[in-house]
Structures are given as C-alpha cells and as structure tokens.
Amino acid sequence: MNLAAQAAQTAQSPGFLSPSGVEVAFLLVGLVTLGAAVVSVTTKQLVHAALWLVVALGGLAVEYLLLTAEFIAWVQVLIYVGSVVVLLLFGLMLTKAPIGRSPDADSANRPVALAVATAAAAALVWVVADAFRTTWIELDGPARGTTGVTGEILFRHWVLPFEALSVLLLAALVGAIVLSRKKPEGERD
Amino acid sequence: MHLAYPAVLAALLFCVGLYGVLARRNAILVLMSLELMLNAVNLNLVAFDVWLRDALHAGQALTLFTIAVAAAEIGIGLAIVLMVYRNRGTADVDRLRDTAEAPRGTDEKAEAAA
C-alpha cells in the first residue's frame, strides 16, 4: 500500500480516543474475560479454575455476539460452557482432585513459564497492535454470522470438511471408549 | 470497531493459556489452559472473517471446525488422563518422567531408589 492510500485510510478510520459503543462494550467484556482467564490459570483451587473458565468462555461468547457472529456465539455457549467444562469437572472429580486449596497446583518451572508468557505477550501485542492500528471492521450492514447465513455456507461450500469432521468425532468417541474401558483380569496393556 | 481490539485480546488470551500450559502441574488444568489457547485462535478467526467479508465465510467455518476438533481433543485427552491416573495414581504431569533422561551422576541413585 503506498503512502497516500495509507494516509487516506488513517484519515478516514476513527481514532482510539473516541470509541464507539460497541468498542466500549467489547473492551469491558474483554477485560472481564481476560481477568477470568488469568484467575483460572493462577488459582490454587482446582474446581474454581474450571468455574472461572466458564466466565472466560462465556465472555468470549459475548465477544462473538458483538462481532455479529451469532451462531458461533451460541455454539460456544452450547459446546464449551455446556459440555467441555462439565467434562473437565468430571475429570477433576474422577482423578480425586482436592476440593480446597492445593499448594502444589503450580509446578516448579512457574517463573520460567511466567517469563515465556510475558515475552510472548509483549512480542505478540506489539506486532499485532502495530499491524492493525488503523484497520477498521465495518460492523454495519447485513449480519455476518446469523444461523441462516452460516448454515447456507456450511452446507454449500464446506460440506466435505464438515463430513470429514463427523468421521473425526466418531473416531474420537470410539477412541475415548477404548481408552477408558476397564481391561479384563489378566490382560495387561 | 478497530481490528486491534479483538486481535490484542486474542493475543493476550493465548499468552495466558501458554502460561497455564507451562506452569500447571495437574494434567486437567493443562487441558483447561489449552482450551483457552484454542479459544484465542477462534476469536482471531471470527474477527478476521468479519473484517475481510470473505464470501465463503472461511473464518466462521474454520471456527466451527476448531470447536469440534477441540471437543474431540478434550474427550481423548481426558480419557488418557483418566487412564494414567488409574495406572499410576497421579495426574501430575511432572511426575510422569519415565522417558526423561536422568541428570548426570544420579543414575546410581535412581537405580537404588527403584
């Protein structure tokens, strides 16, 4: 992109100092989501981590709604909040996770993890903010992700991957059953 | 809306998940952090789909596929964790060190302990 076009784009795209209502909502929900995610990976109570994950995933569903992707938002609520978190809670229960505070929830390489994550966050945020500083999403006009639109494109252009995905889910189901089946006596794996 | 908002939020969520994967000891908490990372990618996909106005809606279709793959992953992952817990009595990832190379000079000690 040459300089004149870039300058024109900069001039026409609104600045950060006068955010629109959608942006303010996105920012607030984003802060809640990020805070819940941070608590979820740092809390010492294992069950609370799963419950904070619900807040983070629900916040992401709201962000999808704000980005006009309705169908994905409801799929997010249905699959993540509805089933993945329940699965995780069952997993915690079946591995007899302690209910109260467990002081050994974090492993010994926590400082290294913190350093790596901070470095990655700094690099990614710097690059991303620099690259998309002046890029503007047009949210007006016909909604991008209503159930009708999504169903139409999914079954018109993405049928083959969709069917392959159902085979993958079937394979995962069979695999999970085989893995968690109790072996008969005398048979070792 | 500026694209920078969802992009920065996705980057930060990804790094929070990265921290969780590296720092957590319980395997199920590692899986939780993995879900956070996958969700950050989904947010990126949705935001770029809305920005680019792709005629095929590739971003949203890929988001749905990612969600389905993540569901399969969590099912298999939990099955593996439960099997490890049943066989070993622990789900701590840093105690599963069978394939780890022993530090120099501790071979005799490890053998004596075993």
Automatic annotation (TrEMBL), chain A:
Membrane disposition: Multi-pass membrane protein
InterPro entries: NADH_UbQ/plastoQ_OxRdtase_su6, Nuo/plastoQ_OxRdtase_6_NuoJ
Entry's EC annotation: 7.1.1.-
Top-level taxon of origin: Bacteria
UniProt entry keywords in alphabetical sequence: Cell membrane, Membrane, NAD, Quinone, Transmembrane, Transmembrane helix
Function, in words: NDH-1 shuttles electrons from NADH, via FMN and iron-sulfur (Fe-S) centers, to quinones in the respiratory chain. Couples the redox reaction to proton translocation (for every two electrons transferred, four hydrogen ions are translocated across the cytoplasmic membrane), and thus conserves the redox energy in a proton gradient.
Reactions mediated catalytically: a quinone + NADH + 5 H(+)(in) = a quinol + NAD(+) + 4 H(+)(out)
Localization per Swiss-Prot or TrEMBL: Cell membrane
TM stretches of this protein: 24-42, 49-67, 73-92, 112-129, 158-179
Descriptive protein name: NADH-quinone oxidoreductase subunit J
Organism the protein comes from: Streptomyces filamentosus
Family: Belongs to the complex I subunit 6 family.
Molecular function via GO: NADH dehydrogenase (ubiquinone) activity; quinone binding
CC per GO annotation: plasma membrane
One Pfam family named in its UniProt record: Oxidored_q3
TrEMBL record, chain B:
A biological-process GO annotation: ATP synthesis coupled electron transport
Catalyzed reactions per annotation: a quinone + NADH + 5 H(+)(in) = a quinol + NAD(+) + 4 H(+)(out)
Topology within the bilayer: Multi-pass membrane protein
Record keyword Endoplasmic reticulum present: no
GO molecular function per UniProt: NADH dehydrogenase (quinone) (non-electrogenic) activity; quinone binding
Extent of the signal sequence: none
EC number(s) given by UniProt: 7.1.1.-
Main subcellular localisation: membrane
Keyword Calcium: no
Pfam families: Oxidored_q2 (PF00420)
Role this protein plays: NDH-1 shuttles electrons from NADH, via FMN and iron-sulfur (Fe-S) centers, to quinones in the respiratory chain. The immediate electron acceptor for the enzyme in this species is believed to be a menaquinone. Couples the redox reaction to proton translocation (for every two electrons transferred, four hydrogen ions are translocated across the cytoplasmic membrane), and thus conserves the redox energy in a proton gradient.
Family under the similarity heading: Belongs to the complex I subunit 4L family.
Subunit structure: NDH-1 is composed of 14 different subunits. Subunits NuoA, H, J, K, L, M, N constitute the membrane sector of the complex.
Entry protein name: NADH-quinone oxidoreductase subunit K
Name of the gene this protein is made from: nuoK1
